[in-house]
Give the backbone structure.
Amino acid sequence: MNAGKTVFAQILEHFPSHEFGEFVKKCNGNHRVRGFPCHDQFLCLAYAQLTYRESLRDIETCLNSHQEKLYHNGFRGQVSGSTLADASEKRDCRFIRTLLIILSS
C-alpha cells in the first residue's frame, strides 16, 4: 500500500500557491463566489489537462471516483459538473489566460 503522495499532489508542490492567491486578490477573481473558489477551479482544470479528460462529466466522474484522495490533493470537497460549468461560465476566460502567462514566465 502506498503511503506517499499522489503524482498530482507532487506536481502541485511546484505550483506557486502564494503568487496564485495574490493574483486572485489583485484581479478580484473570487468576487461573488461562494462555494467554488478560483483555486478549486484551477485544480480541476489542471487535473483534467494532466489526465486527458475530455468533458465535464468525465472530469466529475474521474475526480469523484477518488473521493478519499481529493482532500489530500488540495480539493475542498466533492466536485460536481454543474458547479464546474457555472464557474467556467461566470469567470472571465482572460483571468485564466493571464494566470497561465504569469505562471509560464
About this structure: The chain has seven helices and no strands.
